Amino acid sequence: MPAAHTPHYLALGDSYTIGEAVAADRRWPAVLVQRLRQAGVVIDDPQIIAVTGWTTDELAQGMDEATLAPPYDLVTLQIGVNNQYRGRAADEYRQQFASLLARAIALAGHRAARVVVVSIPDWGVTRFAREQDRDSARIASELDSYNAIARDEVARIGAHFVDITGISRQSPLLVADDGLHPSAAQYALWVDAILPVVRTALQPSH
């Protein structure tokens, strides 16, 4: 009999996906895999293509330069906070995000249901934002616009969307020592929300 196939997982993103300021085994894609395995789901360690500070176009370039091995059985995508941070236009985000989403689906063997998009958290509630005297209401509004675009594109193409923005707003103290990025405790809360969606995405019918 042929060996059983072990599902492959590709995680695309920026500082949140790479887990800036937390241990490697506490970044959320790693915790997601740990939780899946605890639930009896066989899955490879995540292949992560993510760098702190990346925007949508920089992630696309990083994917161009990476060694990829499709088809992946699960692809997660979380990107856009640095577009907002740099004051990029929402229309540009829509165009570039839609392109990334299409690439993610192609990498998932053209199975949109195997792609899970995770929303952008609200960094405006963090200590870093307060210390920098940032306009938290403006940040929230701009990120809401970005997340609405992502949700719209995901719905249009038949992938999955997980909103963790509310968790970030409810957890302003759950940040790493840098005062900006989520702590391991906050990432664990994200996985609570992401896990059931991923389990659905990994169903054989998908």
What is the structure about, briefly put?
The chain has 206 residues and is of the alpha/beta class. It is 48% helix and 10% strand. The protein has a five-stranded parallel sheet, sandwiched between helices.
Helix content: 40-55%
Q: Return the string of H and E elements.
A: EHHEHEHHEHHEHH
How much of the sequence lies in strands comes to 5-15%
Assembly context of the chains: single chain
The gyration radius over C-alpha positions equals: 16 Å
Count of individual helical segments: 9
Q: If strands are numbered along the chain, what order do they take across the biggest sheet?
A: 2-1-3-4-5
Distance between the termini: 24 Å
The profile of the biggest β sheet is: 5 strands, parallel
The tally of strands reads: 5
* Large-scale geometry: globular
Computed structural class: alpha/beta
Which residues form runs of ≥5 with pLDDT under 50?
Answer: none
Mean pLDDT, nearest integer?
Answer: 96
Overview of the molecule:
The protein is α/β, with parallel strands linked by helices. Helix content is 48%, strand content 10%. It has 9 helices and 5 strands; from the N terminus they run βααβαβααβααβαα. α2 (28-38) packs across α9 and α3 packs parallel to α5. The model has no long low-confidence stretch (mean pLDDT 96).
